[in-house]
Amino acid sequence: MTPDADAPLGLRERKKRETRVALSRATIRLCVERGWENVTVEDIAAVANVSVRTFRNYFSGKAEAIAASHVERMLRIADELRARPATEPLWDAITGVVLAEFGGPAEPAGAESPQARRWRDGVRLMLAEPALQGEIVKANAAAQGAFAEAVAERIGSDPAHDVYPKLVAAVVGAASSVAVEHSLTAEPPTAVGPVLAEMLERLAVGLRAPS
Amino acid sequence: MTPDADAPLGLRERKKRETRVALSRATIRLCVERGWENVTVEDIAAVANVSVRTFRNYFSGKAEAIAASHVERMLRIADELRARPATEPLWDAITGVVLAEFGGPAEPAGAESPQARRWRDGVRLMLAEPALQGEIVKANAAAQGAFAEAVAERIGSDPAHDVYPKLVAAVVGAASSVAVEHSLTAEPPTAVGPVLAEMLERLAVGLRAPS
DNA sequence: CAGAAATTTTTCCGCCACGGCAAGTTTTGC
DNA sequence: GCAAAACTTGCCGTGGCGGAAAAATTTCTG
User: Fold this and answer.
1) Which of A30, A77, A195, B10 is buried most deeply by CB count within 10 Å?
2) What's the pLDDT tens digit per position in A194-204?
């Protein structure tokens, strides 16, 4: 394995991560723009400037390539939760890191541009694909495991005997999903941030850390 | 279309339903016994005595073929809910129909036979397959729609303006999923019926129909 | 009941997904 | 530098998937 957890990433590792995210992003972009059915692995490989075979070395298929970006974000959230000052209250830390990832660059509040609408519709359609949903379920399970560990570490409890961390992870995951889905279907379009913020605030009230 | 909703099913329709369930059951059996990866559509078609192409005329793939049995059961539950006497309290009716479908032929309570264990393990493995999970998500959405309509019809409310029916459908669906998953992982093995029964009882208390 | 009409099943065919294997390249570590 | 390790690539066989038209079956009609 890699004994060092982070900093001195060799050139090789950096390049790998680079192509990995490039492939994932390319897959998402093409599928949102053209629709799931109208994208072949060959198209994706072409956009990312690698061979078809290389795409397959990274991902087992379009679905996994798309879900990968989702996993990365969830894992990043768990990591950032660990990086928060230990003195900060649990739910303040959670709200902070989650909103930092999902808040995004606040859209100009005015009327939605035609291209923004096309993108939203494309994403919604893409997310409806069963092949992708399955992969997302899998991704969420993995991500929630990591998040639960981060929570357990923070409040100093054993994840094996205390369900609280898992509960928090599951609930935060569910809230994120609902918020995203809401922002994709709401009319007029709504930003994810504020909705998610209110949800987390309510959840925090009901789920204060056990004494 | 078919103006008559049911009874006088022609020979043709009967045969179609027959091969449909035959294909679905064959797919489930083979995948549970051999594992998802080790089953080709050709194998399934062979078992069901039809051509590979015919399998494809019925289902888009293994996943859909398996999920089909699940959908049928859920839709059957919704139908049976409609058939219950209108005087029966809502949650009594729900509990009745759900347990009738999920109760199954009560297993002999003694030690689990080796083959029963293999089956349980096979099912658990199969259900972990992302391709299948996606299809199940889709199936649940459809089934819950039907169930919600049945509930709305029963308590005489408009499903478009009242969330109660949808809530009940979602909750019953979730309880069913959890109960099944629990019965597949619990040690020692547990029957679905009793677990589900208790869950529904609790839910009924919290979700009495709105005045 | 024969023959037409409608529908399903099957055969044939091509495209794409998927993954093992054996070069060909690039990065790493000494 | 140079050899080993790791990554990329092309090749190719198996299987999933679906369009199109022939063959078989059921249903309809005179």
Assistant:
1) A77
2) 888 888 888 88
Count: domains in chain B: 1
Tell if the CB–CB gap between A134 and B138 is shorter than 8 Å.
no
pTM: 0.83
Examine residue A39 and state whether it is found in any structural domain, yes or no. Answer: no
A168 to each of A95, A162, A203, A207, B171, how far by Cα in Å?
12, 11, 9, 8, 20
Q: Is residue A126 part of a domain?
A: yes
Out of A4-18, A59-73, B110-124, B172-186, pick the least confident: A4-18
For residue A171, give both structure tokens: 């609930």
pLDDT score of B127: 94
Structural domain containing residue A77: 62-206
pLDDT per residue over A151-177, tens digit each? Answer: 998 988 887 778 888 888 888 888 888
The distance from CA A44 to its chain's CA centroid, rounded to whole angstroms, is 21
Which two tokens mark A72? 């990365």
Contact A130 B130 (CB under 8 A): no
In a domain, B96, yes or no: yes
Residue A133: give its domain's CATH number: 1.10.357.10
CA of A24 vs chain B CAs: smallest distance (Å) = 18
Closest-CA residue in chain A for B127?
A134
Distance from residue B49's CA to nucleotide C19's C1', rounded to whole Å: 30
Establish if A23 belongs to a structural domain.
no
A135 and B130 within 8 Å at the Cβ level: the answer is yes
Instruction: Please state, in angstroms and rounded to a whole number, the distance separating the CA atoms of residues A176 and A93.
Output: 16
Instruction: Considering only CA atoms, name the residue closest to the C1' of nucleotide D6.
Output: A12
Contacts of A38-46 with C-beta under 8 Å, sequence gap 24+, read: none
Assess A130–B contact: CB distance below 8 Å, yes or no. Answer: yes
Using one digit for the tens of pLDDT, what is the confidence trace for B98-129? 999 987 776 666 667 888 889 999 999 999 99
